[in-house]
Each structure stands twice: as C-alpha cells, then as structure tokens.
Amino acid sequence: MEKQILVDMDGVLADVYSQYINYEFKNTGTLLHMEELEGKSEFSFPSFRNYVMTPGFFRTAPVIPDSVEGLHYLNERFRVLIVSSATEFPQSLTEKQAWLNEHFPFITWQQMIFCGSKESIRGDIMIDDHPKNLNHFVGQRIMFPQPHNNASQVENCIRVSGWKEIMSLNWMGVHA
Fold it and tell me: In the UniProt entry, which residues are flagged as the active site (predicted)?
C-alpha cells in the first residue's frame, strides 16, 4: 500500500515569515531579520494577524527554497496531500488554492485539504512546522524548520534542515 504523506503549506511550502517581513517593511519601514523572530510564535508579532487578513497575503507569499523540487520528488513516489489550516482566515482559501496551482501545478485539487484543525487528518507521515500539529499526529512526524519551532520538542520527530534534507531521507526506512 502506498504511503500517504501530509504536507503543511504555510511554513513548509509558502514562506510566510518572509512575507511578514516584507509586509512589515512596506507598511512601517521597519526591516526585521529572521534572527529577531527566533523562538516566537508568528502571532506574537505586531500586525501579523492584520497582515494575514489582508487580501493577497497568502496569494503572493514566496515559495520556500527547494520546495517545488522536493514536493515533486515526493509526489512521484507517494500519495501526497497538502493539508493547510486555512479556515481561520476565510479569504485565504481561494488564495491558497490559486498559489498552489501556480507554483505546484502537478498537485491536483483532489490533493488539497483546507481545514480548521489537523487533528482529524490521518496519514502515514506528516511534514509540518508547528508542534501543535505534529504532537497529536499518530504517524511519522517530520518537523520543518521555522523560527517559532527552533526550541520545540516533539516526541519521536525527525527534524530536518529543509527540502534538500527531506529528499535525502531514506524514504524506505521512514515508516509510520
């Protein structure tokens, strides 16, 4: 049976931290650096909630380096589903779908799951940047690096440095 891999969107495919930094500079003139965001939730930053509610925020987010190649690699070998907690920001639903269609045209609409909580989503492997999503997941957990999770502990979790490392994993040895 083919393994089902769940891949988060924001922070794994879409670079929402860079998008936040760009919005903050454009709107306030303040240039933030990624190091300043280390160990803090994205929602602890001024205006972050306002920015994610702004039309276009999700639609124009930069692509995480190597994610197109990495997701294509996984998609050719496994059953890949993109799982994004999108219903908290209702305008993001169409933006996220359009963004995925543009940057990952090999991902079909049947592979996109937009939800509120990921607790009911099942698969063999989950790649996510948020411990809150990985902590409840019963399969293999892979934590993607983002400033908010640098000190987070998730039991039985593989920490990766990025998409190149994901592609170099021994996928036959990764199991649920």
Answer: 8 (nucleophile), 10 (proton donor)
Alpha carbon distance 65, 12 (integer Å): 10
Q: Give the dihedral sign, CA 133/139/145/150.
A: positive
- CB contact at 8 A, 68 and 103: yes
Do residues 28 and 139 touch, judged by C-beta distance below 8 A?
no
Backbone angles phi, psi at 38, to 5 degrees: -55, 130
Which strands form 112-115's sheet, in the order they lie side by side? 112-115, 79-85, 4-8, 125-128, 140-143, 157-159
8 is a catalytic site residue: yes
**Whole-model pTM above 0.90?**
yes
Residue 15's Cα: distance from chain center in Å? 8
- Exactly one of 8, 15, 124, 128 is catalytic; name it: 8
The pLDDT tens digits of the residues spanning 78-104 come to: 999 999 998 888 889 999 999 999 999
